[in-house]
Amino acid sequence: MEVLPSVTSGDSQIPEHVAIIMDGNGRWATKRSLKRLRGHEQGAEAVREAVKGCGELGIRYLTIFAFSSENWSRPVEEINHLMGLFRFFFQKEVKALCEAGVKVKFIGDIRRLPGDIQELIEDLKERTKDNSKLILTIALSYGSQAEIAGSMRRIADKIKAGEIAPEDIDEIMVARHLETADLPDPDLLIRTSGEQRLSNFLLWQCAYTEFVFLDVLWPDFRKEDLIGAVEEFGSRNRRYGAV
Ligand code: FPP
Predict the structure, then answer these.
(1) Annotated catalytic residue, options 71, 109, 131, 185
(2) Looking at residue 39, which CATH number applies to its domain?
(3) Structure confidence by residue, pLDDT tens digits, 37-67
(4) pLDDT of amino acid 112
């Protein structure tokens, strides 16, 4: 792969954590008079491409939005197909992910998923737990507002148990009770398909994240698109509210 000089590994312009909202699978298929399901299948190929690209660029954390809590309201046929894709991907990719040094984590309400997928998730986590080149977090059945409410509940339980006082609650404590407690906040968030919104993804964690919106539909996403987004990130001046 041609890596542009400004984004060579070790360069400070490389974001440590990239988050991606993979959008446009349905439109990709409709444009080709195919069923939406075909778009999701091609989308899974693009996930492989993104993981590989992040590894090559030296990005340490990649978090992808694979299925939102709102996606449960899609037609049953589409949900079943997506579940089939997750099943296939989680089983088939273990070896390649291990070879590439990828550790896989999950965030979201995994208990809503079919039992066998929950088992595959546990297996994938276990088999990749010692890898450290890239931490791939898959948001599955995930909604950020529910995640924040969960953090509040866990803090409230500790107050009830007398372990902490309400005055102890600050931003660090809330962050430490989120499912992403062991991840740095995303530096760069990419959303494909031209849509420009967060859609209940990492609302708390994206307080100072740089957003890059790409017109490319997710199934067409390639390493070049990742490099373009990383270059755009490198040109931004991050001030975190200071001057
Ligand atoms: C959004 O496109 C995409 C999704 C809801 C599913 C994302 C899933 C994949 C990329 C499949 C594979 C993932 C893994 C981890 C193996 P959309 O259906 O909302 O597209 P549209 O906006 O064009 O209708």
Answers:
(1) 71
(2) 3.40.1180.10
(3) 999 999 999 999 999 999 999 999 999 999 9
(4) 97
Structural domain of 28: 15-234
Q: What are phi and psi of 204, to 5 degrees?
A: -70, -45
pLDDT by residue (tens digit) across 201-235? 999 999 999 999 999 999 999 999 999 999 999 99
Distance, CA 227 to ligand 1 centroid (Å)? 21
163 phi and psi angles, rounded to 5 deg: -80, -30
In a domain, 167, yes or no: yes
Tell me, yes or no, whether 3 lies in a domain: no
Task: Name every protein residue with a CB atom under 6 angstroms from any ligand 1 atom.
Answer: 22-27, 40, 43-44, 47, 66, 71, 85-86, 89, 138, 193, 218
d(CA 10, ligand 1 centre) in Å = 31
- Which atom of ligand 1 sits closest to the CA of residue 44? 12
At a CB cut-off of 8 Å and minimum separation 6, what does 168 contact?
Answer: none
Q: Can you say how many angstroms the Cα of residue 138 is from the centroid of all Cα atoms in its chain?
A: 5
